[in-house]
Automatic annotation (TrEMBL):
Role noted for this protein: Catalyzes the formation of methylglyoxal from dihydroxyacetone phosphate.
Gene: mgsA
Domain MGS-like: 1-136
Organism: Brevibacillus antibioticus
NCBIfam families tied to this protein: MGSA, PRK05234.1
Protein name (record): Methylglyoxal synthase
GO molecular function, one term: methylglyoxal synthase activity
GO biological process, one term: methylglyoxal biosynthetic process
HAMAP family, A to Z: Methylglyoxal_synth (MF_00549)
Record-linked SUPFAM superfamilies: Methylglyoxal synthase-like (SSF52335)
E.C. no: 4.2.3.3
Catalytic activity: dihydroxyacetone phosphate = methylglyoxal + phosphate
């Protein structure tokens, strides 16, 4: 599975803690992250990630391009609901693309943990069928 890990500035510590807690699950998958989030996760864990630009500099759009090609299987985007974001339209575009392509999208720690536990139990394996259909 291809998993994107994204977090707003005030949520970066939470996503690092999440990655540490679920490192054994995440290590079995291809991981992607926006700039600083990816750096912080790699510093705190042994996980290997493909890093994109910082979100406001286009990293959200780089991940969005993968979503548009149905090349992403799960998005964990810990959003800061209390701080205005200058790149809010990019975030809304990610949500819309995930809805169009039926890609699970977790926006807070609770939903992220549920998604990762489901991933561990094989409950997101249906995404493999999506990839097979796209190749046909």
């Amino acid at each position: 599975m291809k998993i994107a890990l994204i977090a707003h500035d005030r949520m970066k510590e939470q996503i690092v803690q999440l990655a540490m807690a679920y490192e054994s699950i995440l290590a079995k998958h291809d991981l992607y992250a926006t700039g600083t989030t990816g750096s912080r996760i790699m510093e705190a864990t042994s996980l290997s990630l493909t890093r994109f630009l910082s979100g406001p500099l286009g990293g959200d759009q780089q991940i969005g391009a993968m979503i548009a090609r149905n090349e992403m299987d799960l998005i964990i985007f810990l959003r800061d609901p209390l701080t205005s974001q200058p790149h809010e339209p990019d975030i809304i575009a990610l949500l819309r693309l995930c809805d169009v392509h039926k890609i699970p999208f977790a926006t807070n720690l609770g939903s992220a943990e549920i998604m990762l536990k489901a991933l561990e139990l094989g409950q997101l394996d249906w995404r493999e069928v999506v990839h097979e259909e796209n190749e046909a």
